[in-house]
Write a structure and sequence with these properties.
The structure is a homohexamer of 73-residue chains. Chain A has 73 residues and is α+β, with helices and mostly antiparallel strands. Chain A has a single domain, classed as Macrophage Migration Inhibitory Factor, CATH 3.30.429.10. Helices cover 37% and strands 29% of the residues of chain A. Chain A contains 2 helices and 4 strands, in the order βαβββα. A two-stranded parallel sheet of chain A has the order 1-2. A two-stranded antiparallel sheet of chain A has the order 3-4. In chain A, a hairpin with a 2-residue loop joins strand 3 and strand 4. The first copy, chain A, is elongated. Chains A and D meet through strand 1 and helix 1 of A and strand 1 and helix 1 of D.
Chain lengths: 73, 73, 73, 73, 73, 73
C-alpha cells in the first residue's frame, strides 16, 4: 500500500503553464503502474498526492526558482 | 512534542462539500486528545497540520479520485 | 481516502521507552475512528504512517530535544 | 525540479522481503523518466526519496498492516 | 543534496500579514547557506520548499491556532 | 509556530561520515534563529525534524545517489 507524493512547481504566467489535469492523470497512472511492475503493489491501495508549489515558494541554489532561472540564462 | 499531518481530499461542487472549519477543529482536538491519552504527550507541544488536496491531485487505483469514484459506482 | 502521518520522538534509554507496538495500534485505530466519525471517511481507505524520530533529530527552542528538556527542568 | 517521495512498507521476515537496492534503483529511474516524459522535467534536478516503513508503523482499515492482512485472508 | 520543507502559518487579515516574497527569499537563502556552512552541501543541489498553512488548518494545544491565540491572551 | 523538515543523505562507510550530533544541533539552532530573525517566530514553538536518508534511498538524475556520484566524476 504505497503512498507517493509528487511536488512540482506551479508554472504559469507569460512564461509557461502548470501541469494540466490530463498531465496529472498521466503522472498518477504512470507511478501506480511502476509500483505494480517493480514491487507488485496493488493499484487499489496505491495513493498518489500531487502538490503544485508556487514559484516563489520553491528555492534552489539559495534563490527562489524564478530568480535562479533568470541568473542561469 | 508530536507533529501530525492529516491529508484529506477537498470535496465540493455539486457532489459534496469540503471539511468545514468546525470539522477541522474536531480533527485537531481529537488527534491531540488521542496522543495525550495513548502516549502522554502534552497538547501544548502537539502540532496538527491539515492539508486539503484538490480532487484532481489525489490518485488511487491509477486514476484521479473523481474518475476512480465514477468507475467504482 | 485520508493519509495521516504521525511523528513522535523515539524515547528510550534510562529515561523512558518508545511507543510500543500496542500503543501504535491504538494510534492507528484512534485516528482512523476519528476520521470516520468527523468526516465519514472509510477506514478501508485511511492510511496512517507513524515515524519515530531519534531524539537528536528533533529540535525545539533551537535545541535538540534532550538538551531542551535538560534546560527546562 | 520535482521532488518525489515514495513510501512503501518494509516487508521481510518469514513472509517476504523488502525492496532490494536494485528495485529501488528501478523506482528512481522509472519515476524520473515519467516526469521527463509527461512534464519535460530535467532528470538532473529531479530528486526521489524512498522511505521503507516498518509494518507496525503503517496502518490501514484501523489496524497495523500485518493484522489487517491477517484478517483480510 | 538536501531537501528542506518549511511550514509556516499564513498570517493575514486585520491581525497581521503573511510572509512576503522577500521574506521567503531570505528563508531560502538563509537555510541554503546554513547547510553549506554546517555540512558542506552544495547550494546547486539544495531544494527548499515553503508551505503557507491557513490558520484554520494548523492546530496546537488541541485548538486551531487562532482560537489558541485568543485563549492565550 | 513553524515546522521545518531537513532531509540529508546519510553519508558513511569508507567515503565519509554522516552528520554528527553536533552538526545536527547546529542545523536546529541555525534554522530556528533564521525563522526568528526573518519572520519573528518564537523558538519555543519552532519544531525542526532532521531525516538522514540512506544513500540507496535517494535518487537524482534517475540514479541512486552513489551511482550518480560515480558517473559524475
Amino acid at each position: 500500500m504505497p503512498y507517493v507524493n509528487i511536488k512540482v512547481t506551479r508554472e504559469g504566467g507569460p512564461d509557461g503553464t502548470g501541469p494540466s489535469a490530463e498531465q496529472k492523470a498521466q503522472l498518477i497512472s504512470g507511478v501506480t503502474d511502476l509500483l505494480q511492475k517493480v514491487l507488485g503493489k496493488s493499484p487499489a491501495t496505491t495513493f498518489v498526492v500531487i502538490n503544485e508549489v508556487p514559484l516563489e515558494d520553491w528555492g534552489v541554489g539559495g534563490l527562489p526558482v524564478q530568480e535562479y532561472r533568470r541568473q542561469a540564462r
